[in-house]
Amino acid sequence: MSFFDKIFGGSNNETPDQKSFWKKIEKEEDLAKAIELSYQHKIAIFKHSTSCFISRTVLKNFEKEVDGSDEKPELYFLDLLAHRPISNKIAEDLGIRHESPQLIVIENGKPVNSASHQDISLSQIV
Length: 126
Fold this sequence. Notes:
CATH architecture: 3-Layer(aba) Sandwich
Number of strands: 5
Order of helices and strands: HEHEHEHEE
Strand order of the largest sheet: 1-3-2-4-5
Shape: globular
Radius of gyration: 14 Å
Pfam families: BrxC
Strand content: 15-25%
Protein name: Bacillithiol system protein YtxJ
Number of helices: 4
Helix content: 25-40%
């Protein structure tokens, strides 16, 4: 990877595979299961653009925050570049305008909080 790719995002398709707390949303069935679980406890969906430096930075900061916390919420990860139709479905079904990066907190099938960019924090979930 070149110096500029490291700074500006390049084509690095980094995903949070190294973090065990993420559950991936890769198809509509995954989204439906996540929404269903929100009736038992809050869940959060992190929408991430793998080609965006800002999104990558926010993701890393959020992961550090989760790693350093005793709270372990149910977290879902959506790769926007690989699964844009699912992101569109989230926006349509939940009435939340698409942003990236974005954290959407869902309880009882409805969004109860959302944030984007540097406003994303674990405190929005717990």
